[in-house]
Design a protein that fits this description.
This protein has 17 helices and 22 strands. With 484 residues, it is α+β, with helices and mostly antiparallel strands. The protein has 2 domains: 93 residues, Alpha-Beta Complex (Penicillin-binding protein 2a (Domain 2)); 325 residues, Beta-lactamase (3-Layer(aba) Sandwich), CATH 3.40.710.
Length: 484
């Protein structure tokens, strides 16, 4: 073969190979990135041709689906949310103009049919498979109760199964109608109270006295104290020249550790935190999952990290020079999410074992094939089963005779802890309750926060928690669904 022809042949062959490789890269590997670009007109058109899968609750209520419409003779699909505002921040939205959030974003590849080997062929053929359905652990009966009790107030509720990590409800108030996103997103953004924010997973609040559950666990774990250890309260405890008082500057005199949790005695828990020190308190926080992202199936940008913050920066848990006395009572720049505190309650309820919370039970194709399934997964141990049971008994006293009485349920034992955190305005509080029921065989753990209220955790958050737990305990298994 003539040398010149050989060179020309090799050049053309190499060019063709590069063309094939580049075409494959842009059509297959980089297709997902291109599809996410809001300025891609092809993507806008293509999204209207996708029959996205449904989002279905544990009790078989459709929360999101695609409906058809015609434009110039062409059949298109648009997203429709039959329940409107129910679980809006969790379900999320998916539009060609505003993008996607929540489960719509996290499970987009399944909902849009862009998974498996068939998806590669579809891209090359410029076709799209029907999306798969996602089946949730969230139950609309529990969700509706939580949202109704929050109505008109800013706040959040999280309810989980402590033994499995299944999320039964994630409520955030105020909310918004998912169907309004495509038609009038500007109005939603203008509404007061940040309705687009998922307060349950992305809102950060001072935990107040609910954090004493963590401190009580550390105290018993140290071996220095037991539930019957005695203290003599004088009404004030001074650290570095700064006094710590009880609520209302009350004085309790002789009492034990169970009494201290029952009546939320600041001075006792401050003394315990001071003696434990920053390192020991930090280690306990680490065991409970503080200062690291919660592993839940939602977009990372919608999940805030609980811990201590200074100037907007997250601090490490273990710092020798930290004010462990104030950390022990839920102060000292502590900021937590309701999800994190539900996990705290859930870990105590589950014998000291913390489970990973999850929202999606399984992903199923239109013809019934399960392509993804999630099962209970332990993420860590916060204490021994014995210590967890002792802390649980102390939390039971909080509800039976202490600050959490409003969370009590007739005929059932409830374990919990209230919290009333300051806001900077002496007349306004952040009201908390965390707990679980039944105390002797936990089926549901909850965390409730009510923002900017004149009430306390006992008067505002505890009744909400009680009703949410009552609803969760009243629902039976869904027909046709396995219990595990």
């Amino acid at each position: 073969m003539n040398r010149s022809i050989r060179v020309l042949y090799l050049t053309l062959a190499a060019g063709f190979a590069v063309l094939v490789l580049m075409l494959g890269y842009w059509q297959v590997i980089a297709a997902g990135e291109l599809d996410e670009r809001a300025d891609n007109p092809y993507t806008l058109e293509k999204q209207r041709l996708v029959d996205r899968g449904r989002i279905i609750s544990a009790d078989k209520v459709i929360l999101a689906e695609s409906v058809t419409y015609r434009e110039k003779g062409q059949k298109y699909y648009r997203r429709y949310y039959p329940q409107g505002a129910l679980a809006a921040q969790v379900v999320g939205y998916a539009t060609s103009r505003q993008g996607s959030t929540g489960l719509e974003q996290q499970y987009n590849r399944y909902l849009a049919g862009s998974y498996g080997t068939g998806a590669i062929l579809d891209r090359l053929r410029d076709e799209t498979k029907d999306g798969a359905d996602i089946r949730l652990t969230l139950d609309t009966r529990v969700q509706k109760t939580a949202e109704a009790l929050l109505s008109g107030r800013k706040g959040a509720v999280v309810a989980i199964e402590p033994k499995t990590g299944k999320v039964l409800a994630v409520a955030s108030s105020p909310g918004f109608d998912l169907n309004q996103v495509a038609s009038d997103f500007a109005s939603i953004r203008k509404e007061s109270g940040a309705p687009l924010l998922n307060r349950a997973t992305g809102g950060l609040y001072p935990p107040g006295s609910t954090f004493k559950v963590v401190t009580a666990t550390a105290a018993l774990g140290s071996g220095t104290w037991s539930p019957s250890s005695t203290f003599d309260d004088k009404g004030v405890y001074v650290v570095d020249g700064k006094p710590i008082y009880n609520s209302g500057k009350a004085k309790y005199g002789l009492h034990n550790l169970t009494d201290a949790l029952t009546f939320s005695i600041n001075t006792t828990f401050a003394q315990i935190g001071d003696r434990l020190g920053g390192r020991a308190m930090g280690r306990e926080m680490t065991r409970f999952g503080f200062a690291r992202p919660v592993e839940i199936d939602l977009p990372a940008g919608e999940i805030a990290v609980s811990g201590r913050y200074r100037d907007g920066k997250l601090l490490p848990n273990e710092q020798r020079d930290s004010d462990s006395a104030r950390i022990a009572i839920g102060q000292e720049n502590l900021q937590v999410t309701p999800l994190q505190m539900a996990m705290v309650a859930g870990a105590i309820a589950n014998g000291g074992r913390m489970m990973r919370p999850y929202l999606v039970r399984r992903v199923i194709t239109r013809d019934g094939v399960v392509v993804k399934q999630q099962r209970p997964q332990e993420v860590g141990s916060v204490s021994s089963a014995y210590i967890a049971s002792e802390v649980g008994r102390m939390m039971g006293s909080v509800v039976s005779e202490g600050t959490g009485a409003e969370a009590g349920l007739a005929g059932l034992s409830v374990a919990g802890k209230t919290g009333t955190a300051e806001t900077g305005d002496p007349e306004r509080n952040q009201a908390w309750f965390i707990g679980y029921a039944p105390a002797d065989d936990p089926k549901v753990a909850v965390a409730v926060v009510i923002e900017d209220t004149s009430g306390t955790g006992g008067t505002e958050a505890a009744p909400v928690a009680g009703e949410v737990m009552r609803t969760a305990l009243s629902i039976g298994p869904v027909p046709g669904e396995p219990s595990a």
